Amino acid sequence: MAKLGSSSHAILAIFLVGLLGMEAAVLMVSSTCDYGIALDKTLQFFEAQRSGKLPPNRRVNWRFDSGLKDGFLQGVNLVGGYYDAGDHVKFGLPMAFAVTMMSWGAIEFRTQITNLNEMGNTLAAIKWGTDYFMKAHTQPNVLWGQVGDGVSDHYCWERAEDMTTPRTGYRLDSEHPGSDLAAETAAALAAASLAFKPYNSSYSNLLLIHAKQLFTFADSFRGIYHDSIPCAKQFYTSSGYFDELLWAAAWLYRATDNEYYLKYVVNNAVSMGGTGWAVKEFSWDNKYAGVQILLSKVLFEGRGGAYTATLKQYQAKADFFACANIQKNDGYNVQLTPGGLIYVREWNNLQYAASASFLLAVYSDYLSAAHLQLHCPEAQVQPQALLDFAKSQADYILGKNPRSLSYVVGFGQNYPTHIHHRGASIAPVSVLKAAVGCVEGFETWYRNARGNPNIIHGALVGGPNVYDGFNDDRSNYEQTEPTISGTAPLVGLFARLQSFCGNGNLGRSLPPRTISPNNNTRGLAHLPARPNFSNKTPDVPVSFLHLVTSSWTSGGKTFFRHKVVIKNVSPKPITDLKLRVDGLTGPIWGLGLTEQQNTYQLPPWLKVLKPGGDFTCVYVQGGVQAKITVLSYQ
């Protein structure tokens, strides 16, 4: 399978859609910034990997509905989610990691993604995964972790729309545990809850409920997932589950501020290796560096309290990872190719370059915000050096390398054309309406010497070898196969690197796409950055359920109709409720006015809010939801 990397380069001429079998011209590099184009294409790759019923506004016109009966034979709806790579298996562990990484990018680089007009596409990509995970989490201690198996799937070369291979679902439960997979899914849902919180708090809360349950399941019933789903072992062997448990707890602490989760990562720091493992890679299988950097943020913000000493140990390991990548670790460094690319493993090496570069970009910002330097054995390093190194990796991926080849398909003028990907290599259903069978696919399409008929934009291929060599051959799956887990870190990385370009809208190649109206996040591609509001109202007798019910565009600006259900969750009636509404930029209906600015009360027609009773207010504005808090009540 393959993993991704990212790079930044501008193209001297406007990129051309390559004709089938045509040799593209050598990539020309100029001073123009095209990270925005690279981000847009990366998100298109996730659209190409979708399983299930596709929305009518899809951008990848050679993909159609597929896998519409996944799970039905076992009485569960497992339709949706993502195909892993060039095949059609839905592997839970790398899929969850991909969603975690996209969510992390949306959290850290919200402003940059919004300025690039890509927040709608980013949240849509995340939601396609989280909707599937919630379907797959059918009971508190049950998680369906995979659909299809790699062995039977790899016997066939056919389009997803023509699949004839078994679509068996595989589940985890208390008797068949999988702490690594369940905890990674918990991390994905917790991170996604933060990504969605500014835009759809009810969906965010639902994600968090599932995340908490899955973490409890993962921690209570321990085991490696591939022991319970043996057919996954050949393709995604897990090295253990301690890192995923720490990873999930760290994300749940960030999403909830519940000290229980911080105490968990501190109490288990030694026994689970969080402060013991000094690592030089970050991937779908090894989360230690991610945990260490996430917890360093807690320390830098002065929120360590009684746990500060342990958090400093986590930070020391985060520093090790960063120093090893930038070659300042007293010889214990990450290997680089002659062209300067991070090199970890022969198979799908770009995934490691992409994930490491994302982490370095995040850590650079954490250190900068805290006005700290990175202490390496060989030097005191400014945070900017981490970002510069991440940029060098992204630029290599996008074409600044010895072969002048972009390893992101569809970016630039010179990129691989013989991608190891079933759907991209076979003519689409709209052109070739007859089904393509198992063997026919191999004989007619897999062995075809011509380039793929469909360009799978944004796919990060496996990439070059340790000597920067690359063979663009469909059978060379170690180098030409893309994966969702390898590509996902590029979302945040490309967004962050756009800051090198000044104007955030440079390089936009396609008009913004909004999310389908049926998922309550329509129009999010236009949303501005969220103000620093908190929607928490602890120890109050009412709850708030926020919903986005419609949107429209007027005068070039998108407006949203927000509906808030205010419910009395206490056992006593409320007669005098005062609410403060911050961040409101448009009109509001359903609340009574007061003489104080931004302060409202029960509407005139509602004198008493009975226990369990509720009422609704509605407001219209462009952008994120307003913050409603309780000032007083009787």
Radius of gyration, Cα only, in angstroms? 24 Å
Q: Quote the beta fraction.
A: 5-15%
Count of DSSP strands: 17
Mean pLDDT across the residues is 88
Give the N-terminus to C-terminus distance in angstroms: 61 Å
Q: Describe the main β-sheet briefly.
A: 4 strands, antiparallel
Structural class: alpha+beta
Helical content band: 25-40%
Number of helical segments with 4 or more residues: 19
Q: Poorly predicted ranges (pLDDT <50, ≥5 residues)?
A: 1-32, 503-538
Strands of the biggest beta sheet: in what spatial order?
10-11-16-13
Using the alpha-carbon principal axes, give the shape. globular
Describe the overall structure.
The chain is built from 19 helices and 17 strands. The chain is α+β, with helices and mostly antiparallel strands and 634 residues long. The strands form 6 sheets. It has a 4-stranded antiparallel β-sheet with strand order 10-11-16-13, with no helix packed on it. It is globular.
Short description:
The chain has 634 residues and is an alpha+beta fold. Helix content is 35%, strand content 12%.
Notable characteristics:
four-stranded antiparallel β-sheet
List the helices and strands and how they pair.
Layout: E1 10-11, E2 29-30, H1 35-48, E3 90-91, H2 92-108, H3 110-115, H4 119-136, E4 143-147, H5 150-154, E5 169-172, H6 179-196, H7 201-220, H8 225-228, H9 242-256, H10 259-267, H11 288-300, H12 308-325, E6 335-336, E7 342-343, H13 350-369, E8 374-375, E9 380-381, H14 383-398, H15 422-425, H16 438-446, H17 477-480, H18 484-487, H19 489-497, E10 542-554, E11 557-568, E12 578-582, E13 588-589, E14 592-593, E15 599-601, E16 614-621, E17 627-632
Antiparallel strand pairs: 1-2, 3-4, 4-5, 6-7, 8-9, 10-11, 11-16, 12-15, 12-17, 13-16, 14-15
Helix pairs in contact: 1-19, 2-4, 2-6, 2-19, 4-6, 6-7, 6-9, 7-9, 9-10, 9-11, 11-12, 11-13, 13-14, 13-19, 14-19
